[in-house]
Design brief:
The structure holds 2 protein chains of 2 kinds.
Chain A lengths: L13 H14 L2 H30 L4 H4 L4 H19 L1 H15 L2 H4 L6 H19 L1 H12 L6 H28 L3 H22 L4 H7 L4 H8 L2 E3 H22 L5 H22 L5 E3 L10 H8 L5 E5 L6 H17 L3 E5 L17 E5 L2 E5 L4 H12 L22 H22 L7 H6 L4
Parallel strand pairs in A: 3-4
Antiparallel strand pairs in A: 1-2, 3-5, 5-6
Chain B lengths: L5 H15 E12 L2 E12 L3 E5 L6 H9 L6 E6 L2 E2 L5 H4 E4 L11 H11 L5 H9 L14 H14 L4 E5 L7 H16 L3 E6 L2 H7 L2 E6 L2 E6 L1 H8 L6 H8 L1
Parallel strand pairs in B: 3-8, 3-9, 6-7, 7-8
Antiparallel strand pairs in B: 1-2, 1-4, 4-5, 9-10
The chains are: A mainly alpha, B alpha/beta.
């Protein structure tokens, strides 16, 4: 039973807390500095990407085959957003850490945890502010899309929104890691080191463990970078979405457990272990979810439309045994061109790497390079990593005739020769000036009513 | 008919005190590594009083207040509210602790910080009164990090006055004020207590404590060395007409 002396925690409004968090982020230099650095970074990336795209487009002027390979997603958007990715990886942690690190350093956290909000509410407010900070940080990149459209460039909304969603999730993931790091660290400097250990550690994992098998392959999956890569390839994966959201929620929950200075260490550790186990179980569970959507205009993550329809009707389990080492470029090709597409379109696909070990140095093995497809009790082998070879084999195994191509379904490409030079004025001049003006505007003193000053004179 | 002995009278008086206590601390202990910060601390706070935690620097006043407010984990002991155990996460509903030397959200404007507390506690009408009471009108447009020590202290007091909790724990509320300002703030705090709130003040200036507190808990080396009104402490120390300073020296 509650004491009559208690004040109601539930009645405290969320809006003042969020406003305070936003003022904290805006009053610091980190966000504005990041924005000012982003302008030339995005501008240079965009200019270079648009110029290269223009050169490729000029070369494809008389070649429909070359033109069909020109996609603004690959040619312009992904390279431009690459600068945002770099800034979010290296600079955004400092913005996010500020949401909690300054309160810890100045001791204001001792006031915050006494306010009529649950620790989870405090963390939600900080995560919301971090999300809004990311939305502000993405402005230069969004302006690049607008400039591209103004130059006459083609923007396909689903693939662009999918890319933005990926960047948002990556930003929130980095933000949640930074918040957790700030919660467990005494100072902002330590929190920054912990966060950068995650983000730069991901790069190390990417470079060092690419193409490894077994435990190393599992470890390499912990990298943050591949999460974004899927969105950059234009694939919207439900499993990935749920997985990243679970990871964000997990880090936010860990930050909640470590926020309150009065909770004993043992209790914090116990809750953390339970949280990590729950998130790990969830991440393991979501790997079973196959639902995905090819958001690209050229449908690069899918087979041709006629094959997609025909393959979706093959309900028997398909087993594929690959006699290739995981680091073999042919395996990478096979995975991109055939395996991942089959896994998306067919309900029961099992892929097995023969012996599950590296074949490097065992080229004398005659089976090396073979890909074995087993469907409905029949087996077929090939050494090709192209779908043009693999799909006829599958139709043969299933006893179906290959479908006729659907006319008019081919992607024609969007070549554009443009002069992106004037855009440099925007990214190197006008936009930074606007950001400085906005910075100045947010720093102006509040208006105090004359009545309040009159009434609130010295006692 | 039997006559009660002196220890019996003290024991009964303690039972009665605990029965009417707003807050009790029972056998509280806290260590930082090998160092004992608090040892076997027991005390009671009565509703509406101004209780002074008195002791030199390092006596354990701040640790005790933070332990009561739930801002440091305890090694052992209990905090009770009207006789019932008070869980950590419910302390913020009943008490508010004002730390010493804090400049909260230092890059924000004073008006924003005061307005934030008023909005959180749904008391926007309290802003003008609080600003008038503490003379903050001239610094509302300043950032917290630009305030002098005295005004930073006034800001903290303003935040405490806006909070609605029954019990206020204040660490060194007079630090940073000159004599005249200290007297002003004492008047403000006495008014707060007269309006029904209970105050626990950690004070190391014994003269200040003597002027503003109703009762005292004397702390030294993390232990309670005496507690009661000045007269009760004088009796414990065997010094009838002594001031708090002499009583403190005698008991610690």
């Amino acid at each position: 039973m509650r004491s009559p002396d208690t004040i109601a925690v539930a009645r405290a409004r969320f809006a003042p807390l969020l406003a305070k968090e936003l003022r904290e982020l805006m009053s610091g230099r980190a966000l504005w500095t990041m924005l000012l650095i982003l302008c030339p970074l995005i501008g240079a990336s965009f200019f270079q990407a648009a110029s290269l795209y223009g050169e490729a487009s000029a070369a494809a002027k008389d070649s429909p085959e070359l033109a069909s390979g020109l996609s603004p997603l690959d040619g312009v958007l992904v390279p431009t957003f690459g600068a945002l990715y770099l800034a979010v990886t290296l600079l955004f942690p400092f913005v996010a850490i500020r949401a909690l690190g300054r309160e810890k350093e100045t001791g204001a956290l001792r006031l915050s945890v006494q306010l009529p909000y649950r620790p989870a509410t405090l963390v939600v407010a900080k995560m919301t502010a971090i999300g809004i900070a990311w939305l502000i940080a993405v402005i230069p990149a969004l302006s690049a899309i607008a400039v591209w459209a103004a130059l006459g460039g083609h923007v396909y909304a689903p693939e662009t929104l999918n890319l933005l969603l990926g960047q948002l999730l990556y930003g929130l993931l980095v933000g949640s890691i930074a918040l957790f790091a700030a919660a467990v660290s005494e100072g902002a400097a330590t929190a920054a080191i912990v966060t950068l250990a995650f983000t730069i550690g991901s790069w190390v994992l990417d470079f060092a463990l690419v193409g490894q098998s077994g435990l190393l392959e599992w470890v390499s999956r912990l990298s943050l970078t591949p999460a974004l890569r899927t969105f950059e390839q234009g694939l919207f994966s439900a499993a990935l979405l749920i997985g990243i959201v679970a990871a964000i929620a997990g880090f936010a929950a860990l930050a909640t457990f470590w926020l309150h200075p009065g909770v004993p260490l043992r209790s914090k550790l116990l809750r953390s272990v339970i949280c990590i186990a729950a998130v790990a179980a969830m991440l393991a569970g979501v790997t079973q979810i196959r639902a995905s959507l090819d958001a690209t205009e050229d449908l690069r993550n899918s087979f041709p439309a006629a094959d997609q329809r025909a393959l979706a009707e093959l309900r028997e389990p398909l087993s594929i045994t690959v006699h290739l080492a995981p680091e073999d470029p042919r395996y990478v090709d096979l995975k991109r061109n055939v395996l991942s597409k089959l896994e998306r379109v067919m309900p029961h696909v099992t892929v097995r790497l023969a012996a599950g070990q590296s074949f490097v140095g065992s080229s004398s093995d005659e089976a090396y390079g073979e890909i074995e497809y087993s469907y409905a009790g029949r087996i077929a082998k090939t050494r090709s990593t192209s779908h043009r070879e693999a799909l006829p084999l599958l139709y043969q195994l299933s006893g179906r005739t290959p479908p006729a191509p659907i006319a008019g379904a081919d992607y024609l490409g969007h070549p554009l020769v443009s002069n992106a030079q004037p855009a440099l004025l925007w990214f190197f001049g006008a936009l930074p000036l606007l950001i400085v003006a906005a910075w100045w505007w947010t720093r102006r003193p509040p208006r105090i009513s004359a009545k309040l000053i009159e009434e609130g004179g010295r006692p | 008919m039997t006559t009660a002995s002196a220890p019996d009278v003290i024991s009964r008086s303690r039972v009665a005190e605990h029965a009417t206590a707003l807050l009790q601390v029972a056998k509280l202990a806290k260590r930082y590594g090998e160092q004992r910060a608090l040892t076997d601390i027991s005390l009671a706070v009565r509703a509406g009083e101004v209780l002074g935690l008195i002791g030199p620097n390092g006596a354990g006043k701040t640790t005790l207040m933070e332990a009561i407010a739930g801002l440091v984990p305890l090694d052992s002991g209990e905090v009770l509210w009207r006789g019932a155990p008070l869980p950590l996460m419910r302390r913020r509903e009943l008490m508010f602790y004002l730390p010493d030397g804090l400049r909260p959200w230092e890059e924000q404007y004073v008006a924003h910080v005061v307005g934030f507390f008023a909005d959180v506690y749904g008391k926007p009408e309290s802003v003008a009164t609080t600003i008038r009471t503490l003379g903050l009108a001239g610094v509302l447009h300043k950032r917290v990090n630009a305030l002098s020590k005295g005004y930073a202290r006034r800001l903290m007091l303003a935040l405490a006055l806006i909070t609605p909790q029954q019990l206020l724990l204040m660490d060194e509320p007079f630090d940073g004020f000159d004599l005249r300002q200290t007297r002003e703030i004492m008047g403000v705090l006495r008014q707060v207590a007269a309006n029904g709130r209970t105050l626990v003040l950690a004070v190391h200036q014994l003269g200040d404590a003597e002027r503003v507190c109703d009762r005292f808990v004397l702390l030294a080396d993390g232990r309670v060395r005496g507690q009661g009104t000045l007269d009760e402490l004088r009796a414990q120390a065997g010094k009838r007409a002594a001031g708090l300073e002499d009583v403190f020296l005698a008991l610690t």
